[in-house]
Amino acid sequence: xxxxxxxxxxxxxxxxxxxxxxxxxxxxxxxxxxxxxxxxxxxxxxxxxxxxxxxxxxxxxxxxxxxxxxxxxxxxxxxxxxxxxxxxxxxxxxxxxxxxxxxxxxxxxxxxxxxxxxxxxxxxxxxxxxxxxxxxxxxxxxxxxxxxxxxxxxxxxxxxxxxxxxxxxxxxxxxxxxxxxxxxxxxxxxxxxxxxxxxxxxxxxxxxxxxxxxxxxxxxxxxxxxxxxxxxxxxxxxxxxxxxxxxxxxxxxxxxxxxxxxxxxxxxxxxxxxxxxxxxxxxxxxxxxxxxxxxxxxxxxxxxxxxxxxxxxxxxxxxxxxxxxxxxxxxxxxxxxxxxxxxxxxxxxxxxxxxxxxxxxxxxxxxxxxxxxxxxxxxxxxxxxx
Length: 386
Description:
Growth Hormone, Chain: A, 16 helices, transmembrane, MFS_Efflux_Transporters, 386 residues
């Protein structure tokens, strides 16, 4: 039975969950950009090793995602999300006290466990349990809030690094989990709107076809690959197109606002349409941006960033809303855990693969992500509304 909640209560749930997820993203996915180099220097390593440990964390998150989703299906998301805050804090404390690379890798493995049970997939499954098929609006709401994770996380990590050091910055994030995110998750409803947890990723009443599940898993993997590749290498790509360093950085700064603007559009006008329609339009954005960049070069740098950012903003929401719209709320958590597992693994490899392509091919490397984006669009065109 889906609980009937007042609009004010719904708003508080979205605000609490969105804010706690902002902390989780900022203290895991976004800390290597600021802390990887000082971590490596302190331990006498190349930064490549720290980024390798971070990639390992994403593989760990892919492995535990289906379990976390199944747990949320059966018992609701509050307990799992609260556990994730404790796990994140433990992993960050391990990083803070790491005397050697082995402990550093152990800390990132624990953080990977926290990522598997405490990022968007867990948040989406929690909302599906609370709201059932009406979760599209709340899912969009939490992505609007957590979309500012880098905006909050990078400056705060930088401030703690400059004031205290990288180890103390990790302790600071651990305390934020315990004192801010944990109480916010404790405010969530205890139960779940759908108790039915499937015994396999395709069992939920009339089962969705394996082809549909496979197509959607491919779409998520392709879009995560492109998103992570651009997050790691966008300035270098734009410079390969002829942009100056200043222009490349300024264009890259537009991605965040473009993502938020697209999510506002999804929250308003696009919510009248089936998520499959908005997802198809979003999947076309990166290939179109790639064509513009190759055709016009440096003058298209800003247009590329805006198009890619807008598409990525809606695709992030689609990872939660599309499985719900296509396959229903029953067993939703376990299903999105399986659907996103390949995406997490490819996400771990994306910076290395695209970086090698950019080094070897220059601007022509964009055809790699454009081709992947086009394949994702074709897969979405093959999916049909129920």
